[in-house]
Amino acid sequence: xxxxxxxxKRYPNGFDALTQVNFELAAGEMAFLTGHSGAGKxxxxxxxxxxxxPTSGQVxxxxxxxxxxxxxxxxYLRRNIGVVFQNHQLLFDRSVFDNVALPLQIxxxxxxxxxxxxxxxxxxxxLLNKEKQNPIALSGGEQQRVGIARAVVxxxxxxxxxxxxxxxxxxxxxxxxxxxxxxxxxxxxxxxxSHDLGLIKRMxxxxxxxxxxxxxHDGLLTAASYAPRPVTETEL
Amino acid sequence: xxxxxxxxxxxxxxxxxxxxxxxxxxxxxxxxRSNTSDRISSYLAHHRVxxxxxxxxxxxxxxxxxxxxxxIAIAIALxxxxxxxxxxxxxxxxxxxxxxxxxxxxxxxARPQAIQMLQxxxxxxxxxxxxxxxxxxxxxxxxxxxxxxxxALDTLDDNPLPPVLLLEAAVSVSSPEQLKALALQISTExxxxxxxxxxQWLERxxxxxxxxxxxxxxxxxFLALGVLLAVGNTIRLAIESRRDEIVVVKMxxxxxxxxxxxxxxxxxxxxxxxxxLALLLLAVALFWLSEPVARLADLYQSEFRLQGLxxxxxxxxxxxxxxxxxxxxWIAVSRHLYQIEPR
Lengths: 236, 343
Known about the structure:
Number of strands of chain B: 4
Largest interface: A-B, 53 and 50 residues
CATH architecture of the domain at 1-73 and 196-236 in chain A: 3-Layer(aba) Sandwich
Mean pLDDT of chain B: 82
Number of helices of chain A: 7
CATH topology of the domain at 1-73 and 196-236 in chain A: Rossmann fold
Order of helices and strands of chain A: EEEHEEHEHHHEHEHEE
Distance between the termini of chain B: 32 Å
Oligomer: heterodimer
Helix content of chain A: 25-40%
Order of helices and strands of chain B: HHEHEHHEHEHHHH
Number of strands of chain A: 10
Mean pLDDT of chain A: 88
Number of domains of chain B: 2
Radius of gyration of chain B: 36 Å
Shape of chain A: globular
Largest sheet of chain A: 6 strands, mixed
Radius of gyration of chain A: 18 Å
Shape of chain B: elongated
């Protein structure tokens, strides 16, 4: 599904965000991407969604070399990747329904099909009764779930999340993680960038640990195997 | 890891439809919508929705939109008013030209019978509607009355004025060239000394009109440039105010065409409604002028009335204005939209 082959990314200002990163995520696999801020988590996700291009190395999505994708093809690639943002990136000038419907409208779905899929996605995240509301009226947890509904409404085979629980309390975070787990259960590949080590440990999934742009950990998280820096009480 | 057939298709490809996806137990049956007619109809539906929502967006901020519409309307109406003015002067000029006058000077020693014969011959020509004979005595009397040189003329021993035939060309003789040809033909008559066409002023008028047309064209071009800049700047601000939305839709797979579309429609609506407002301004201006013009024409015993733009020219004006709006927004969009990318 995702394969990084000796991928390095140096930003124009000379900052090395990623150095020689190699890993592979199988289709339908769920993994966490962790590391302190500035370790390269966001850059890695941006390379998958082609917001950034690698300086060297190759990224493959389902066998397709992203270096060979020109800018005109990027939109069609992105339609197959659902992205959940930390600040959910909802549009407050339209209803919850219209926010979730956006990817379908862009992809050119028929009206009836849009309605059916949007309601299915909202039902999945438990917000079917809020479809007519403006997302600004929802709580933080609900807003994040609208963001997740938007990311999965197109039924993408791959779901990326950048700090999806960054602004949520532990209870809500656990609910969100449960949602991601359910998507994996139906065959969606899930890659979640997070520094919430306590939550990651409880999920007991594969963890990719980044430190200063290098992949320093790949596997289940145990206290001994991964410690990019001393873990503080507040993080746990 | 269970590899799912539907889920594994993630290549970048132009068709948006995915007929069968992975089994999501909440989404029910997935319907194939990959056939071409479906896609065309949803594409057209999106155009319709975008066109309508762009207009609604403009109407949601009526005052702001009205200001832009007025700027466009004035920029379009100004050259249009001059154009209408020129058209009317031209119509007036051709009306006068139809009664083009030719003065035929006869040799002083020509016999009265010969003059009468010529007069009859000229009257028989279809190009000439009237031929009035003015004898040297009549001409002198008229001249001394109207010129104020009466006393000075009395001192002359004999009458210096030749006999004259005053011809009026028929309506069919409509261009200065035809009038000239007619004059040349008359000048070949043996008793004719000289032929003068009273058309110098007409030629001057035509030159002035040609000059006026160029001036109007130049003004129109300048103001069209102004419309482009006004629309371009307004669209630039619209793009800036919708930056978040652009980032989000690009992130969920919107093509540049999709992102561009609402702004192009906005530009079109600015131009289209601005053009319609320009027609309204023009109509008001003409209405305001029509009565004094009619009264002035009456004083000259003329049937002349102010003419507005006909339906076809009006349509072309609105079309041109719409295209200007579209083009202006295209410039803004192509300059600014590509700078907004997800970060």
